[in-house]
Amino acid sequence: MSAHDPVIIEELFGELQVSGDDRQWIVTRTKARREKKLADQARRNGIHYYLPQQSSNKVYQKRKVKFTKPLFPGYVFICANHPQKQTLAITGLTAGFITVTHQEQLLSELRALRKLPVEKVEVGHQYWLSKGLEVEIVKGPLAGTRGIVESHDKIHEIRLQVNILRQAVLVKVEPENIRIIGEYEVVETD
C-alpha cells in the first residue's frame, strides 16, 4: 500500500480569459514537485489557476499505477492580483513569479493546450522553435489550434509552444488535417 494518497487536482480553476478587474495572468515558478500543492492552495484561496497535466503509468511490483504529472514541471499559471500573489508567496511553495506582458497571447497558447486529448499527446522534452513553419489544424478535436512545425519533412509533428516558458508540446496530426499559414517555399531535392 502506498504511504501517501495521490494528490488529485483539477487542471483548471476559473476561466482562461483576461480578467475584468486588477487580476493578471502570471507564471508562477514552484519549488521542486510542488505544482499540485500550489494549485490546491490557490483553489482554497479562490485564486484562478491552470495546471496542464499529462497521464502517466508506472509499474510497482507488478501493480500498474496511473497518475498525472504536470506538463511543464515547475510552473503553474495563476490569475491573481497583488494581495493574492502575496498569499501564494507566503505558502513556501513558490520560487518566483514571471510577469506576462502579452496576456492574450499567453491565454491563446493555454487554450490550445486545454484542447489536447491528454492521453494521445506524445510529450517529452520538446525544444522550442524560434523559427519554423506556422500551421493550423483544420480537422479533428484540435481544429482551430495553431502551432509550429520544424520543416516540411516533419509536417505531422506540430509543436504547441508556450513562448513565455520557451517550451513546447509535440502533437502528431495527419498531414491532410493541417493548413500552412503564411508564405512558404517548397524545395525539390533529388
Q: Which structural traits does this protein have?
A:
190 residues; SH3 type barrels; 3-stranded antiparallel sheet; 36% strand; Alpha-Beta Plaits; 16% helix; alpha+beta; 5-stranded antiparallel sheet
Return the string of H and E elements. EEHEEEEHEHEEEEEE
Q: Number of DSSP helices?
A: 3
Number of distinct beta strands: 13
Describe the global form. globular
Structural account:
The chain is an alpha+beta fold. The chain folds into two domains: 1-114, Alpha-Beta Plaits (2-Layer Sandwich), CATH 3.30.70; 116-184, Roll (SH3 type barrels), CATH 2.30.30.30. Helices cover 16% and strands 36% of the residues. The chain is built from three helices and 13 strands. The protein has helices at 35-44, 82-89, 103-114, and strands spanning 12-13, 24-30, 48-50, 53-60, 63-70, 75-80, 94-99, 122-126, 133-137, 146-149, 157-162, 167-172, 178-180. The strands form four sheets. A five-stranded antiparallel beta sheet has the order 1-3-6-2-7, with helices on both faces. Strand 11 and strand 12 form a beta hairpin. The relative contact order is 0.16. The mean pLDDT is 88.
